[in-house]
């Protein structure tokens, strides 16, 4: 413990006037936006010192939680190998090293589709070849992130792109695999997702504008000077991001431009990589679509999942690849109870992913008259999805399954027979027993009568429903992003101390379909916040917890949710953990020069040009609605190099909270981005810090929370 009083740093007030639509707002802390100012850095460091001092008594608990995460994790591990071409590709980790090592090993024959089974702390496969060791690439850097990783079709070249700042700008390099040497080709300041064309002669990549928006697609010829690269597509509309990809069939290169509500795609025959892309469907406001190439009855078809013509939850049609704007064939019609999410095409079957009753679903269509066959599971809450399926002619489907109590599990499904092959389940060391844990679904009633789902998990022997227990309630509720039930090793450190973990599936997310999203955005955004408050009231009224034991957590747009509910119902919470929180929303969305602002107008509305949107956002933007009430304890965690939610937002929020006497802490990672620190051990330390604070806020004394 520290001795003597601990005084929080107070940010100087330097009033700046903001005026829009006749409304004047005086911002005392906008000066904190100047990242290059020594005074700003000094203030952030003073906040870090204060947070360190205030949480010093939690250090033993933090260390125990870190040790628990580490002891439950198989540190030397191997991902399930994925076949591509003549090799099995996988990533492995080594005890004591922060990052993964990307490797491959040869297949035994062209008919070798049975993925090698992984056991124990297996180090690698026979004939292993290391392609890229992230630990080597990260040497000398405080931050490391891999944004692109692709192999040429002949398996001789590797493309990879690295960010060492956390600002999501990557430098592309190309490596000759046989020698391990890099070619002279170096392309800085790119976005993520670069790839080779099938010939391996060209690579395609995207760059960003001054607002960090990927806006231009480039073609680079291997061996040529960067200044000879060709700009093949530019998107001038600031609402749209662009990306480049290739179909699984390797038949078409594809460019997609998308806003939050509108998409447009272009295709190019991959055998002619220097040719011109042609549009699939011209963009139409508020219509989204995804394109996949398939061969059906010997004909090249494009499968299009779209929400045009009133198909709110999306439908699936096919069109001729040579005439995509011609006749449409209906494959899966719109269903108001099912949110169709994606279709993946293979040479002999389709894989369809969708949502029903708030849960993800997976089904197979074998290109025959049998229709869709849905995979069934025997748990009440779960998440399932296909992944690791790059090959057009593969006879199996790789999919992952998880729940609150089942660690991430990887299967191969033999499509012809329906056989499921268990390939690997995430190891949980130390004798994890899933039967000790209970998962369940509750329903809260929102202010307008809407039923809002809540997912909960807890230990049966430590928690008795009806007897209040410490509870962590998580929420997000934006961009139609769903928070699905999933397993977490770190979370066991909460559950095994008698804490309930719950997710509030509030409007603005996508758990219950597109309408669930539409009624939690723009001028209905307050539903996201009031839904979360209703979920908090429900877990209290149902006897799961009490306000003195309830802590809320959310990050990014979920951090906006945290700031809003702190203002709406501070009396319901003992603590609020806000990670990279979007809490100065109105100021950010008013400034088109800031990263990602204009593209966000489809999500939040355009307050710069619309007085109604301005007034609505001002009514909930957390910084502008701090008031003289008793707030719960608040921990705001941010990163100096975050380009999505700038550090200045939580810095201003904490300064405003201090004005009304709130117990608010600010922790800034000085060498990280939106996703926090890089490296698994560093991430475990960060999670241990947050969880120790959560346990303390929920009333569990740090020195007594290991019973």
From TrEMBL:
This is S9 family peptidase. It comes from Cryobacterium suzukii. Belongs to the peptidase S9A family. Residues 8-426 form the Peptidase S9A N-terminal domain. Coiled coil: none annotated. SUPFAM superfamilies: alpha/beta-Hydrolases (SSF53474), Peptidase/esterase 'gauge' domain (SSF50993). It comes from the Bacteria. Residues 490-698 form the Peptidase S9 prolyl oligopeptidase catalytic domain. GO terms for biological process: proteolysis. Keywords: Hydrolase, Protease, Serine protease. InterPro entries: AB_hydrolase_fold (IPR029058), Pept_S9A_N (IPR023302), Peptidase_S9_cat (IPR001375), Peptidase_S9A (IPR002470), Serine_Peptidase_S9A (IPR051543). GO terms for molecular function: serine-type endopeptidase activity.
């Amino acid at each position: 413990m520290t001795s003597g009083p601990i005084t929080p740093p107070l940010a100087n007030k330097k009033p700046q006037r903001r005026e829009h639509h006749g409304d004047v707002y005086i911002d005392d802390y906008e000066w904190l936006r100047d990242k290059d100012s020594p005074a700003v850095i000094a203030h952030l460091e003073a906040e870090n010192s204060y947070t360190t001092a205030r949480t010093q008594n939690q250090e033993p608990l933090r260390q125990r939680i870190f040790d628990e995460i580490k002891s439950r994790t198989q540190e030397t591990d191997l991902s399930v190998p994925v076949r591509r071409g003549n090799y099995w590709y996988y990533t492995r980790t080594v005890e004591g090293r922060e990052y993964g090592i990307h490797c491959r090993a040869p297949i035994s024959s062209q008919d070798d589709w049975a993925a090698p089974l992984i056991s124990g702390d297996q180090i690698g496969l026979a004939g292993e070849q290391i392609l890229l060791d992230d630990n080597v690439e990260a040497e000398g850097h405080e931050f490391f992130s891999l944004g692109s990783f692709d192999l040429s079709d002949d398996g001789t070249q590797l493309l990879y792109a690295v960010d060492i700042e956390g600002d999501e700008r990557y430098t592309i390099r190309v490596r000759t695999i046989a020698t391990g040497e890099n070619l002279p080709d170096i392309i800085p300041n790119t976005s993520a997702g670069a790839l080779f064309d099938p010939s391996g002669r060209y690579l395609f990549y995207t760059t960003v504008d001054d607002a960090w928006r990927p806006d231009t697609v480039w073609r680079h010829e291997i061996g040529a000077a960067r200044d000879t690269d060709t700009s093949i597509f530019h998107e001038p509309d600031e609402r749209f991001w662009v990306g480049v990809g290739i179909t699984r069939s390797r038949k078409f290169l594809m460019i997609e431009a998308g806003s939050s509500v509108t998409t447009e795609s272009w295709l190019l025959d991959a055998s002619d990589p220097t040719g011109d892309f042609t549009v699939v469907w011209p963009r139409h406001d508020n219509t989204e679509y995804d394109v996949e190439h398939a061969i059906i009855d010997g004909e090249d078809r494009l499968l299009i999942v779209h929400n045009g013509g009133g198909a709110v939850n999306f439908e699936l049609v096919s069109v001729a690849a040579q005439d995509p704007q011609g006749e449409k064939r209906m494959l899966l019609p719109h269903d108001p109870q099912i949110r169709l999410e994606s279709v993946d095409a293979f040479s002999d079957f389709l894989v369809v992913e969708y949502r029903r009753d708030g849960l993800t679903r997976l089904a197979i269509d074998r290109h025959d008259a049998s229709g869709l066959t849905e995979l069934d599971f025997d748990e009440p809450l779960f998440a399932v999805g296909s992944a690791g399926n790059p090959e057009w002619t593969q006879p199996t489907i790789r999919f992952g399954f998880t729940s609150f109590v089942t660690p991430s599990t990887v299967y191969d499904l033999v499509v012809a027979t329906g056989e499921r092959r268990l390939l690997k389940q995430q190891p949980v060391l130390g004798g994890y027993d899933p039967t000790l844990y209970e998962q369940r679904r509750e329903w809260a009633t929102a202010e307008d009568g809407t039923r809002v789902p809540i997912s909960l998990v807890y230990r049966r022997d430590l928690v008795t429903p009806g007897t209040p227990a410490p509870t962590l309630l998580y929420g997000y509720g934006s961009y139609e992003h769903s928070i699905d039930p999933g397993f977490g090793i770190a979370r066991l450190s909460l559950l095994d101390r008698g804490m309930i973990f719950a997710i509030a599936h509030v409007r603005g997310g996508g758990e219950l379909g597109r309408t669930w999203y539409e009624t939690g955005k723009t001028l209905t955004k307050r539903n996201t916040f009031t839904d979360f408050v209703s979920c908090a009231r429900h877990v209290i009224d149902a006897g799961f917890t009490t306000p003195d034991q309830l802590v809320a957590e959310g990050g990014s747009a979920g951090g906006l949710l945290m700031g809003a509910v702190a203002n709406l119902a501070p009396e319901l919470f003992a603590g609020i953990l806000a990670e990279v929180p979007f809490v100065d929303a109105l100021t950010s969305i008013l400034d088109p020069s800031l990263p990602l602002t204009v593209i966000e107008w489809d999500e939040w509305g355009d307050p710069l040009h619309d007085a109604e949107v301005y007034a609505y956002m001002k009514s909930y933007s957390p910084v502008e609605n701090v008031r003289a009430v008793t707030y719960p304890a608040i921990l705001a965690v941010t990163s100096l190099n975050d380009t999505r939610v700038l550090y200045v937002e939580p810095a201003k929020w904490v300064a405003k909270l201090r004005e009304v006497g709130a117990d608010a802490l600010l922790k800034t990672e000085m060498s990280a981005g939106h996703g926090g620190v890089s490296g698994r051990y560093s991430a475990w330390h960060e999670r241990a810090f947050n969880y120790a604070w959560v346990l303390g806020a929920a009333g569990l004394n740090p020195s007594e929370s290991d019973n």
